[in-house]
Amino acid sequence: MNRNTINNYSRFFKLIANLGMKPEDRKWLVSNFTHGRTDSLKELSYREYADLCKSLEPSITETLQKKELRKWRSNCLHLLQKCDVNTSDWDCVNYYCKNPKIAGKAFAMLTIEELQHLCRKLRSIQKKGNLKSELNNLVLMN
Questions:
Q1: Cβ distance 76 to 122 under 8 Å?
Q2: What is residue 37's predicted lDDT score, i.e. its pLDDT?
Q3: Where are the chain's structural domains?
Q4: How does DSSP classify residue 105?
Q5: How far is CA 30 from CA 45, 52, 88, 141, in A?
């Protein structure tokens, strides 16, 4: 078997699936990558195929990070909503999040790790049964 022969295109198809692309988008992607020379994976050299897959990998990482961030933001907003925080008003959300006892900065500036910590904190306060009073006390202090 020739080392430079591509026998399996699963790496490519897994990458485009993770990006949310459809297999039909393959031809467009290959054509763009080869500057219109071909739209067939079979006509790519081993080097071209490797470079194409490598060029798609950073996009995967960014996409997965964005999904993770979106998931944790949604979790936090849901918990805040349970506490009667008006989550449709960003000023209100930021007001609570900026308090040092809650997160210490604006909601949009929170990292994934900080959002995870905020969720744990909100659940803990909620378990104690005094989340609404805790947040109301914050309003009274400011």
A1: yes
A2: 93
A3: 10-65, 70-141
A4: S
A5: 12, 8, 42, 60
pLDDT digit string, tens, across residues 95-141 = 989 989 889 999 999 999 999 999 999 988 788 775 555 555 555 44
- Residue 7 has φ and ψ, to the nearest 5°, of -105, -15
Short-list 65, 76, 64, CA closest to 115: 76
36: tokens are 């219109």
Closest CA to 45 of 3, 14, 17: 3
Model pTM above 0.85: no
Do 138 and 101 form a contact (C-beta atoms < 8 A)? Answer: yes
DSSP class per residue in 57-70: HHHHHHHHHHHHHH
